[in-house]
Amino acid sequence: MLPHQLELLAPARNLEIGIEAIHHGADAVYIGGPSFGARSTADNSVQDIAKLVQHAHRFHSRIFVTLNTILRDDELEGARKLAWQLYDAGVDALIVQDMGLLEIDMPPIQLHASTQTDIRTPEKAKFLQDAGLSQIVLARELTLPQISAIRDVIDTDRTVIEFFVHGALCVAYSGQCFISHAHTGRSANRGDCSQACRLPYEVKDAQGRIIAHDKHVLSMKDNNQSENLRALVDAGIRSFKIEGRYKDMAYVKNITAHYRKLFDEVLNERPELAAASHGRTTFSFEPDPNQNFNREFTDYFVQGRKEDIGAFDTPKNPGQPIGWVSKVTPEHVEITTDDPATELHNGDGLCYYDLQKELVGLQINRAEAAKAKGLWKLYPKDPMDGFKDLRKGVQVNRNRDMSWVRTLDKKSAERKMGVWMQLAESPQGLQLTLTDEAGHTGTAHLAIDWQAPKDPGQAEDKLKTALGKLGDTLFEPLDVQLALPRPWFVPPSQLNALRRDAVQALETARTQGLHRLPRAVPVNPPVTYPEDTLTYLANVFNQKARDFYAKHGVQMIAAAYEAQEELGEVSLMITKHCVRFSLSLCPKQAKGVTGVQGTVKAEPLQLINGKEKLTLRFDCKPCEMHVVGKIKKSVLNAAETPIQFYKTRPVVGMH
Fold it and tell me: Is the pTM of this model over 0.90?
């Protein structure tokens, strides 16, 4: 990718979704292979990935495969073999977390740093560039000035800076969350997170007082950077990533289309920038991020710390307000819509908050419009007496609109590339040349003797119209030119064959014109890692990863948390989100309030969910929160043989 190109990077759970991501305007798609892909149930065969590569490459879109779990020593050989199979399948890059992969016999395929590598500083970004990573995805928590600072130390000719612009947010710095492993033995770093962050917790202060009850205090709203795209481009981001390898087809179609339209506006304003792939996409629907599952939206920390980044009331999708309850009967509920034009459908999903602020879902079996405009009788799928606190005056939201779902079930986008067509005379008869917007050409010849047309006046228009019928090819005519010294008649069957051959020649030229992304060469001698001691937070889980860091000057290397050597209380999650700040208990917030100077301290808080207890500690200098706990005995008892790298234990902060 060139420094002036912008890449819209979409997720795919499977081949079908990947193909639609391309049709809806993705410049690149990332997808999981058959294993080691950090999403334990989003695996795909190498054959399916090869098919996706073939389809994407027709538009010069790229396919990246996730190989981004941390690996045990006995898994490295399997990962190496898989990397070669993916390389042979034509994959453009592998997204990796485990530095052990850089120490084994990998194919000459481009490597990208996964979000799990936790890139927050210019030093770390520069190190990964020098170690041979060609694309690096920054931590989602960074602000625009922090992103710019990373851009300033990176050689943007060598390395593409990538950033998440949409989708679910991990509350932890990626790669820095071990709660799932500590509590269940399921490691987030190995693609099997149990999502403790979406659970409800009771929050207690140091005196044991309850300051929040049954709140999802670690659950974030969903990321949406629609308003910040130009600022992110200016800060140096060139690859814009949509989260969602677990998401369904409708989400990928809609969100990819939404950002494609926004980026096309940016590219129109800024001719010095270009899309990273070819073709123009048209949609049969108006993209709208609110229509998909979301926990409401936040732009997180991009514009600085905000008050409202959390989805504390519910981790579910609250949807959009559409009206209020006007009557409740034993069989149905009547609602009055805010906008009389709103249509409700059988199968729509509605919801409302009960008196405990819990979200209650209500699926419609049958929706009947009443005589009065904007009044609807709704017969739910479940019995009416099961709906808690459903009463007159309650606000109702819609979180699934069946007509929208059906729109996206059908064909909803088309992607075409413009071509200039020229028909000219040649010594044998005729030659047709097609030139696409990227400058590739395909030429075909037809050996045919000149024939006079019956109606010379209309001959030219007829030829142009017939040539321009590019039908279900990838191409559409921008202009058809006839470089003919005299009017010609060409039988339709021969003209069709000539056009087919020219299209085939152009497709071949395009295939030859797509060059493999080069593997970056690490700087030699190896550059020094920014730190000389690594704790369990570095996720070093195999001997090759240890060799990698030792080669880069690290003196002391602890094993990954999954090695289960950290038996005491340690930081199980490090996050930029701060529960004290969200509950208005931050000492910095209190500074300006008369009479409280020095009385509000960042004392630890406790999180309680059933028998699970976690401690929140606050590191106010970098403005970070640590969720502290220890590994469960049941997890230790079920353990595999641990790995050990060192004889003396490094000191870990924040005990």
Answer: yes
Q: Which of helix, strand or coil describes residue 428?
A: coil
pLDDT for the residue numbered 655: 43
Domains identified in the chain and CATH numbers: 5-169+221-283+285-291 (3.20.20.380), 316-409 (2.40.10.170), 417-513 (no CATH)
> Which strands make up the sheet holding 210-215, listed edge to edge?
210-215, 201-204, 605-609, 612-619, 624-629, 570-575
**pLDDT at residue 643, rounded to an integer:** 63
In contact, 43 and 60? CB cutoff 8 Å: no
Nearest to 620 by CA among 644, 653, 586: 586
Q: Distance between CA atoms of 340 and 322, rounded to whole angstroms?
A: 10
- Please, what is the angle between helix 249-269 and helix 15-23, to 10°? 30
> pLDDT category, 358, cuts 50, 70, 90?
confident
Collapsing DSSP to helix, strand or coil, 624 comes out as: strand
Closest C-alpha among 176, 109, 644 to residue 101: 109
User: Are residues 175 and 577 in contact, defined by beta-carbon separation less than 8 angstroms?
Assistant: no
| Among 89, 260, 248, 271, CA closest to 165 | 260
CB neighbours of residue 579 within 10 Å: 24
- Distance (Å, whole) CA 596 – CA 173: 32
Phi/psi of residue 184, each to 5°?
Answer: -130, -10
Type of residue at 468: G
